[in-house]
Design a protein that fits this description.
227 residues, 6 strands, HAD_sf
């Protein structure tokens, strides 16, 4: 097996998240009268397409309303608007340590680098722009959850990246993320290697039970697993 493409998640994997996404999620729920959402419940759905994550939370806290399209869309629109504002203005928006160095090292070894995310393109654009990643030579492709028919844990984002980057076999792809749904996405796509990082929403103890191939505490250790 020779890895030709590494697909990285964004928030919590390659971009620092100090609980900001969780805070915005819970504020959006509070704005429609669901004020008691627990931090752990939001962490559990990190990585999902955000509309699906909202439906899961609503089903738990306001049963029956998860099928109310207008109610879900109200929360989703509020979340999107808040996240765009956050990423356009937040001074703490930075890459996680070693991210850019690892991107370059992979490319220098003829391994392509892609990003995928549970965010919409509207949220992702200011992240990439402010980090200078929108025109960065060390990222080959970016795909967002609203650009495929289904987000994680479905494999469609990875499959579309493979098509765009001319990768024929999933065995030649590595998936890197910080949540259970990243692991499930990698498995469903048939990725040759699935790597979890502890820099995001899930702890090592939480990740272990979903059985990724590797769990690392920093992207610094990724090249030795891939190259």
């Amino acid at each position: 097996m020779s890895i030709k493409l590494v697909v990285f998640d964004i928030a919590g994997t390659t971009v620092a998240d100090e609980g900001n996404i969780n805070d915005v999620f819970r504020k959006a729920f509070s704005n429609v009268g669901i004020a008691e959402v627990e931090v752990a419940d939001v962490d559990e759905v990190m990585g999902y397409r955000k509309k699906e994550a909202i439906e899961i939370i609503v089903e738990k806290y306001k049963p029956g309303y998860e099928n109310d399209v207008e109610f879900i869309e109200t929360i989703h629109r509020d979340f999107n608007n808040q996240m765009v504002l956050h990423y356009e203005t937040y001074e703490g928006l930075v890459p996680l340590p070693y991210a850019e160095r690892v991107f370059r090292e992979l490319q220098n070894n003829k391994v392509k680098v892609a990003l995928n995310t549970g965010f919409t393109r509207t949220i992702t654009t200011p992240i990439l722009k402010r980090l200078g990643w929108d025109a960065a030579s060390f990222i080959d492709e970016v795909i967002c959850s609203d650009e495929v028919s289904e987000g994680r844990p479905h494999p469609f984002m990875i499959e579309k990246l493979m098509q765009k980057l001319n990768i024929s076999f999933a065995d030649d792809v590595a998936k890197v993320g910080d949540t259970k749904v990243d692991i499930e996405e990698g498995r469903n796509a048939g990725c040759g290697i699935v790597v979890s990082v502890t820099t995001g929403a899930y702890t090592k103890d939480q990740l272990v039970k979903y059985q990724p191939d590797y769990i690392i505490d920093s992207l610094e250790f990724l090249p030795s697993l891939i190259l």
